[in-house]
Amino acid sequence: MLEGTDVGMGGAATHRPQPPVDARDSVPGVQGGDPLRGGQSGPAKSSSRQAPSTAKPPQRAGLQGRGFEAIPDGQLLAHLLALTTEGKEADADCLADRLLHHFGSLADVVAAPAPRLRQIARLDERGLLSMRLVWEVAARLAWQETVHQPLLATTPALLAYCQMRLARERVDQVRALYLDVQHHLIADERHQVGTAGTVEVYPREILRRALELDAVGVIVARGQVRGSARLSANDRSSAKALEAGGQALGIRLTDYVVVARGGHCSYRGERQSR
């Protein structure tokens, strides 16, 4: 029986959506041991115990009093840095200002690669890990919004998720989302990783995986990290190959989309507009 498949009453097979498969489950530059403990195992500590600290995170009472949703991006980032780095509160404020000035937005800061964060703000291992964890939590929340509804490539929740996963990466990537007969998500997997400007799509591999998952539909999403979203000649060729091969196998290309930070374009939409 395929992974992610349940057999309900009467023997009918139903699918549980599998969490997104992504190889970036570690933070670049954070290696060895427990990153929250500095990554290295040290000598045995003394048995003497220190009294627990009674210090509160900076301005915690003020945050709770006015509501977290009212915190400006700069202060939100500063508080996160103060909780996860070894600097002082004033240092966290300076770091937050520097990061926002360089990257332009809170989303771009937490999505930034670890080497750039280390270069711009000299974040320590805890700070790097916190940025990656915040971004991953946000991406998984966006993914959760796509699970329990029929999907088209232009479903707003799906577009938001694909932009998080693809448009803010350093290089172009392709994800394949496999659907059941009711257009519900079976699995979301990264298909290929390319360079900043090019990535290959292999229709045969996508269709083979669709057969393994017992999928009847597939959405292919390509991230474009530079410039505006547009369908290239290779995109159109890949989409046509997926259509032709899928028709013979009973697998429908629901859509092929290109997503960038500023928007998206759709193979189906392009054809319908002609």
UniProtKB/TrEMBL annotation:
Biased composition, class Polar residues, residue ranges:
43-53
Question: What Gene Ontology biological process does one annotation of this record name?
Answer: proteolysis
* InterPro entries in the record: MPN, RadC_JAB, UPF0758
Q: What keywords tag this UniProt record? A: Hydrolase, Metal-binding, Metalloprotease, Protease, Zinc
Coiled coil as a keyword? no
Residues of the region (Disordered) are: 1-66
Source taxon at top rank = Bacteria
Comp. bias regions, Gly residues: 30-41
Question: Domain MPN: where?
Answer: 151-273
For whether the record's keyword set contains GTP-binding, the answer is no
Q: Name one Pfam family in it.
A: RadC
The entry lists its GO molecular-function terms as: metal ion binding; metallopeptidase activity
Alphabetical list of PANTHER family matching this protein: DNA REPAIR PROTEIN RADC, UPF0758 PROTEIN YEES-RELATED
**Name the record gives this protein:** MPN domain-containing protein
- Biological source species: Azospirillum brasilense
